[in-house]
Design brief:
The protein is of the alpha+beta class. It has helices at about 100-115, 120-140, 145-150, 155-160, 170-175, 180-185, 190-225, and strands spanning about 10-15, 20-25, 35-45, 50-55, 65-70, 80-85. It has a 4-stranded antiparallel beta sheet, with no helix packed on it. The protein has a two-stranded antiparallel sheet with strand order 1-2. Bound molecules: zinc ion.
Length: about 220
Amino acid sequence: MQKHEKKLKKVQYDYENRQYIIINKCPHCNLEIHPTTENTYSFENNSIKLSVISLTCPSCKNDYFILNDDRIEAAANEKYLFSVPKYSFNESTLIKNTSNKFQNLYNQSTNCELLGYYDIAFFGYIKSLEILLKDIAILEHRDSEDIILFCNVIACLEQFHSTNIHLFSKKLLEVLKNDYLHYQKTSDFFNYSVLVKDCIDYFLLYLELLLKTLSLNENRKASEQ
Ligand SMILES: [Zn+2]
């Protein structure tokens, strides 16, 4: 059976009374870690101020750097720049049993977010959630595959996820079905981006449970025959 892996995210890291934004996974071994600090550095010219923190993975013992944008005007969500070596999200980091279509789009969305392309990432996450919802609906309603593939995400939720639709607030449904430009400039943008990612996490767990239940049922049927 698959194991559920925590999603890649940026986390706050405090060291010597300074705050850094790092990623929660090691770029070498991809494990979720709490790294130790080897050293910190600062670089500055007239327009750019950088802080570099050298970290060590307690698991694989490899070192890496994380670069932060230290300008005052850099918003909290723009502070993280990149890691050296570069962390890149790939298929092996995703939980199993999701479709290639989902994995491909979800990977791209995560890499976009890491690079700071938040608008494109937002689009990608919404579409990834739609693919995941449809993959699950097809597993549960195999006879309706054609209808599921060609319906829109709201119709898919209403018809095939009636036990889960209470998770989707009216506002979230609007985010999913509306033109994204409608939300681009509002202060809610990041809240909804996080909510869409949380929904993906929820449905990944739901898929895991569903697959376990289906395989238990199949085993029981086989033993009864
Ligand atoms: Zn490591």
